[in-house]
Structures are given as structure tokens and as C-alpha cells.
Design brief:
With 375 residues, the chain is an alpha+beta fold. The protein has 16 helices and 11 strands. Zinc ion (ZN) binds next to α9.
Amino acid sequence: MESDGPSDSLRVRSTLQRVRSLFAPYMSESIKVSESDSSGLGMFSTKYITRGELILIDHPIVSVPDVDLALSPYNEHDGGDSLCLTDVISSNFSPSVEKCLRTLYPIRSNCSLVKTSSVPPELVDRLRCHLPDNISPGHLIAAVQLNSLGYYTFPELVTYDDHLRFLSGTGIYPQGSMFNHSCHPNINHYAVGDVTFFRATHDIPAGEELFISYIGRDLLVESKSIRDEFLNARDFKCACSKCKDVDDGPDPWLEELGIQERAKLRLLKSREERVLYIEQILKSHDYISRDVFELKFAMARDSGLTGLAIWNELISSTNGCLDMQSIVLRMHFLRNFGQNDTVEAELVETGRLVLGDDMGSFDFLQSLFRITDFK
Ligand SMILES: [Zn+2]
């Protein structure tokens, strides 16, 4: 798909808007924001949370899609996404935005001076104009840098990038930005548009801190030094249990391939070669890789009803952490079979599995399918 500037921006914005209208914000009674030992506020469980439970659906207070970042003066700048988001926040400043910002570190603690030497002076001037006296430009820039969350609709796709790749960007989330990072997170987050979903990956007793990962799941299988490199980009020093641990091996529960395996994978041209390579890697891991999932999905898509059988086998071998991405992929896949009863039954069954009985209706899935179909 060729990019053609502003019209992409309009299209992405209207899609984001429509996705938001499908998913109302939701916060489970099993979670709350509270003081954390490590870094100011954090998110905690108030009740036992079971693995796979959806605990939060959050809409950003402000978000910048990547298509808009690409058109902005910050595109080539170090940390450009944060700067662009800061600029958008300052020109959309309102009491509700301010209320959310005041919960974020370092604005909340109003601690030490934050440097703005590497920030374009025009932005600093603009921030001075728009911000209240007790929020300095440096504090806002730091708060956005430390607390913004990227959203990527289908981040892991290796074969299916014709769709939805524009639905990515950065936002500040009223609840989602409260999660602290761990290299062994107990919460998985994923997005459709800029609506971000948070789901438990482990059973979690009451009173525990809930952690997401600020870096991609593929990086969590890497050594501490590589993880640090990516976390440093966010100006973040990790002191999670895994980083303190001497035994720093890969996590068997992770569903991702490592960097080197990915790099090699990208060099392989034919889809069959890639699937074979991944299957070979998998023999030394006891987890299902999302890459395999996507590749097999692509094979399935190309092979008619045999494909449906491959798909069903994949679904049954995942570990119960099916997410929205899986369902949208499945819908795009099923489109190839045209409209018939099987498709409808399959959709409803997938919807029930992924979203639960109340959200997984055929109408709901059809609307999601329509608004996320960019072809
Ligand atoms: Zn860590």
C-alpha cells in the first residue's frame, strides 16, 4: 500500500475513531492504582486474577498515529514520537488532560529539574505558553517519554503487512500508563487501533503489582544487556526480579523468537522455507511461537478448506492467551471462503473463545472486521 500523506492520516484517524466506538473503556474491579515500592505509582491486583483474564480496556487521552508523526517536524528527531505527542498534548490541554498528567511521574512528584537541552526550542516556547505555571516543559516531556505507550495493531506480523500497518502510534493512557515495567511481566497488552487491552498472562494472587513490558515481547527473551539497550532508549533502568537474577535465561512461556532467529527468518525468501525454519527452532523450545502462528496462517489463507483445518489446529494448540489480534486475523482469513454458514459459525465460535459470550456476537465481529479492513 502506497503512502499518500494527509489522506492516510484522515483515513487512520477515522478508523481509530470507529474502533474506539466499538470498545467502551473498561476497568476490572480486580485492579487498582496504588503506591509502588519501586517507582511511584503502579497497578495492583485487589483480588485473585486468573490467567487470560481481561483486566482493562483503555482509550488514550491523547494519541499520535505514526502517519502523523511521519508528517511532523519531529520525525527524524531522537525520541521524535514523544516530542510529537508532547506537542499535541500542549495544544489540546484541558482539565481532563491535566488531571491525568498530574498522576504521572515526574509531574506528580515535581522532582528535580528535567533538562530540555536536546528539545527543539520552538517546542519549549510553545509548551511555556500552554502549560500551567507549575508544570514545566521539561517535566511534561519527561512524563510523556516515561509514560507513553506505543500501540501496534498486529505488531508481530511477518507475512501479512498489507493490512493495518498504519494503525500504530503512541498515546498517553489514563490507566494503562500506570503500569510499571518488568522483564517478566504478568500482564500482556495489545491494541486494536489505539484502544489498548490488558490481559493477565499468569494467575495472580490479590495484592501483587501488575507489570507490562515496555519493550517488545521478542526482546524479553534476550540477555539483560540487550534488554537494557532498548529500555535505555526510554531512559529506564530496570530493577525487576529477572534483571536482579543471576540466572538470566530465556523465559519458556514467551511466545516469541529471539532477534537472531528473526533476522535469519527475514532472510529466507520463500514462505515454505520460513515455516520449515521456524518448525526446526520450535523443536528446541516448548512453546508455540507467534511467528509460526502467523506464517501458518498465511499458508492456511492460501490453501482453501485445507487451510481452515490448519487454522483450527493452530487455535487448539495456543495456550489460552488468544487475543483480539488472533480474531481479526481469523476474520480476514475467513473472508477468503466467502459468506456461508460455516464462516458465520466459525466467527461466532472464535468470538466466544476470545471475547466471551457477551462481546463475541456475529454483528460485533462483522463491524470490527469492516472497520479494520484496509484492503
Ligand atoms: Zn528487568
